[in-house]
Specification:
The protein has about 475 residues and is α/β, with parallel strands linked by helices. The chain has 14 helices and 17 strands. Strand 9 and strand 10 form a beta hairpin. The longest helix has 26 residues. Bound molecules: 6-O-phosphono-beta-D-glucopyranose.
Length: about 475
C-alpha cells in the first residue's frame, strides 16, 4: 500500500547502528529538506532515558559521526525526536510505546535493529498495542537468522503480523550509490549487454576487502564469520546484480524477480572451490595489529576470510566462474567488481608483430564501489610509431571517476536512501523473502561442505591478501586476483 509515513519508530535507538548510521542519515535528510516537516522520530530501547536525554544522546552521535557541513538545522532535527524506554521481552510497555507514537496521520514506519532474539516478542508486543495495522511498515536489519531454518522462523514471526509488501529487509549495500550505479551501467548503456554473457566474459571477480578487525563485535562476529556476515548478504546481492537478466522496469517486483532467479541458479559448491582463513598478528598501513585469537581472547575456528569459486548455472553464465573473496585485516579497504572479457577470436596483427610482439590483452571492466567510486575499462591501443620493427599494442584505460563526473553531489550514507525509501514505501532496494531464503540455502550448503571436509581456516598475516590457497584457487584456472 502506498503512503508516506509521518512517524518513524526506531527499535535499538541507543545502539551502535543508530548512532553511526541511522541518526546521522536522518539528520542529513532533514538538512536537505527531504523529510516532511511533520515526520516525528520515536526512539525506543531498554536504556532508561527521557526525551531530553535521547536528544542529548543523538546530538553527541551526530557530532561524532556526521560531517559538520551536513548537520544543517540540527536543533530542529533534534526536536523531531522523542524516546520511550521499553523492555521488549514483556508486553507491558507496549501500550505506553503506542501512546508515545501517537496517531500517525499518514502512516508508521518501524525500524527493527535489535538482537534477533527480540524480534518475535517485539512483533507480539506491537500487535498487542495495535501497532501493526495496514498503515504500518516493518523494516528489519540483519542478522536475520544464522541459517535457512532460523531465518524462516524470523520471517514467519514477522509474516504473522505484516504482509510481505510491508516488510523491508535491509542490505545496506543496496543503498550505496555505486551499487545502484551498476544497474545504470548495465542497463542504460547499449554497449555492455550484448557482451554480458559466457560467450564474451571469461570470469567475474567480486572483492570486498576490509582493513578493520573485530571492532569490538566479539560475540556477534565469532558466531557469524565472514561467510555469514558478508557473503550471505552483501556479496550475493552484488553477484545477483551483476548476473541478473534485464528487468522489465526499475520497480520492486521486476528487479527482485530477476535477482532471485540468479540466486536460485547458484550451483552448490564442490570440494576445492572454497578457501577460508583467519588473520594472525601483522601490520595494516604500517601499524601493528593483533591476531584474531588475541582480539577475541581465545582460540576460535571462525573464518575472517573466505574465497569462493561460484557458478551460476543458467544459459547466460554457463562455464563462467564468479570468484568471490572477502576478509578482515586485508591490506586495503576496497569493494570492486571485475569483469574479465575474453580475448578477441583472431588477431589480425599476428603476422605483423615483429620481435616485440603485438601482445593482445583481453578487455577488463573494473567497477570500483568503495572507497573509490570509479569505472575503469581497459582497451587495447597501438603504441604510436612507424612500426618498422613490428606493430606494438598496449592496454590503456578508459577511466570514469564518479566524484569528478558529478562534482558537487553529496557522498551519502547508504542508509539515507534506504530510510527515505522506507518512509515513502519503495521496496526496490530491499531484499524479498525468497531472495533471503535462496541466499541461505546456498550458504548452508557451503557450510555443510566445510563440515564434510572438516575444513578449518588457514592462517594469514594481517595486512596480506589472505591465505596463499586463495591465490591458488584462482591461479589454477589461470586467473589472477585483481589488486
Ligand atoms: C556489515 C558487516 O554488514 O558490513 C561488517 O556486519 C562489515 O562486518 C560491514 O564491516 C561493511 O560495510 P561497509 O559499508 O563498510 O562496506
Amino acid at each position: 500500500m502506498s503512503f508516506t509515513a509521518d512517524r518513524l519508530l526506531l527499535f535499538g535507538a541507543t545502539g551502535d547502528l543508530s548512532q553511526r548510521m541511522l541518526l546521522p542519515s536522518l539528520c542529513a535528510l532533514h538538512a536537505d529538506e527531504l523529510l516532511a516537516p511533520d515526520v516525528k522520530i520515536i526512539g525506543t530501547a531498554r536504556s532508561d532515558m527521557d526525551d531530553a536525554g535521547f536528544r542529548n544522546f543523538a546530538r553527541e552521535a551526530l557530532e561524532k559521526f556526521l560531517p559538520a557541513d551536513r548537520r544543517g538545522g540540527m536543533a530542529d532535527f533534534l526536536n523531531r525526536l522523542s524516546y520511550q524506554t521499553l523492555d521488549a521481552t514483556t508486553l507491558e510497555g507496549f501500550n505506553d510505546l503506542a501512546a508515545k507514537v501517537g496517531t500517525a496521520e499518514r502512516g508508521l514506519a518501524i525500524f527493527l535493529s535489535t538482537a534477533p532474539s527480540l524480534f518475535e516478542p517485539t512483533i507480539k508486543g506491537l500487535q498487542h498495542a495495535g501497532l501493526d495495522g495496514e498503515h504500518v511498515r516493518m523494516c528489519l536489519e540483519k542478522p536475520l537468522g544464522t541459517d535457512l531454518g532460523t531465518s524462516c522462523e524470523i520471517n514467519d514471526a514477522v509474516a504473522a503480523a505484516f504482509p510481505e509488501d510491508r516488510i523491508y529487509r535491509i542490505d545496506h549495500y543496496l543503498g550505496k550509490e555505486t551499487v545502484q550505479n551498476l544497474l545504470a551501467l548495465r542497463f542504460a548503456n547499449i554497449m555492455f549487454e550484448p557482451l554480458w554473457n559466457a560467450a564474451h566474459i571469461d570470469h567475474v571477480q567480486i572483492t570486498v576487502a576490509e582493513t578493520v578487525g573485530l571492532e569490538g563485535r566479539v560475540a556477534f562476529y565469532d558466531d557469524a564469520g565472514a561467510l555469514r556476515d558478508m557473503v550471505q548478504n552483501h556479496m550475493l546481492q552484488l553477484l545477483a546484480l551483476v548476473a541478473m537478466e534485464p528487468p522489465g522496469n526499475f520497480d520492486a517486483t521486476a528487479v527482485r524477480d530477476e535477482k532471485v532467479k540468479v540466486l536460485r541458479s547458484l550451483r552448490k559448491i564442490s570440494r576445492g572451490e572454497t578457501v577460508t582463513g583467519q588473520y594472525r598478528a601483522g601490520a595494516i598501513n604500517g601499524d601493528a595489529v593483533p591476531g584474531y585469537d588475541d582480539e577475541l581472547g581465545e582460540d576460535s575456528d571462525t573464518e575472517t576470510f573466505v574465497a569462493i569459486k561460484a557458478h551460476v548455472d543458467n544459459w547466460r553464465w554457463k562455464g563462467v566462474p564468479f570468484y568471490l573473496r572477502t576478509g578482515k585485516r586485508l591490506p586495503e579497504r576496497v569493494t570492486e567488481i571485475v569483469v574479465q572479457f575474453r580475448c578477441v577470436p583472431h588477431s589480425i596483427f599476428a603476422g605483423r608483430d615483429g620481435a616485440s610482439g603485438a601482445k593482445m590483452e583481453p578487455n577488463q571492466l573494473v567497477i570500483g564501489i568503495q572507497p573509490e567510486e570509479n569505472v575503469h575499462l581497459s582497451m587495447m591501443a597501438k603504441v604510436p610509431g612507424l612500426d618498422r620493427e613490428g606493430i606494438r599494442l598496449r592496454s590503456v584505460p578508459l577511466d570514469i571517476s564518479m566524484p569528478d563526473a558529478f562534482v558537487g553531489a553529496h557522498k551519502r550514507i547508504a542508509y539515507e536512501r534506504l530510510l527515505l525509501d522506507l518512509i515513502e514505501g519503495d521496496q526496490t532496494l530491499f531484499v524479498r523473502r525468497d531472495e533471503v531464503e535462496a541466499q541461505w540455502e546456498w550458504i548452508d550448503a557451503v557450510r555443510a561442505e566445510w563440515a564434510d571436509q572438516e575444513l578449518t581456516p588457514q592462517s594469514y598475516t594481517a595486512g596480506s591478501w589472505g591465505p596463499s590457497a586463495a591465490i591458488a584457487l584462482a591461479e589454477k584456472d589461470g586467473v589472477s586476483w585483481h589488486e
